[in-house]
Amino acid sequence: DMQTQMEEDSRQHEELREQYGLVERRCGVLSTELEETRGALDLTDRARKILEQELMEMTDKYNEVNTQVREPGPMEAPGGLQSPSFS
Length: 87
Description:
- By secondary structure, the chain is mainly alpha-helical.
- It contains 1 helix and no strands.
- It has one helix at 2-70.
- Residues 68-87 are annotated as: Disordered.
């Protein structure tokens, strides 16, 4: 009876050891995936910041050009029509 209990304990111990090994390997895989995901997130965040900066610059340039187009020049009347010139 004592021998049977020891064999059962030994078998359970071995099963737990195998389960621990599986969990440890899975943890390693997940850790690697986490690091890869963090790296991808970092690259994406940097790209987003660059694109935001480019958008701000393009918006500023658009507004500048739009303002220049809307301002009447020295030969234009306020409505955008050219004043007649008499030579």
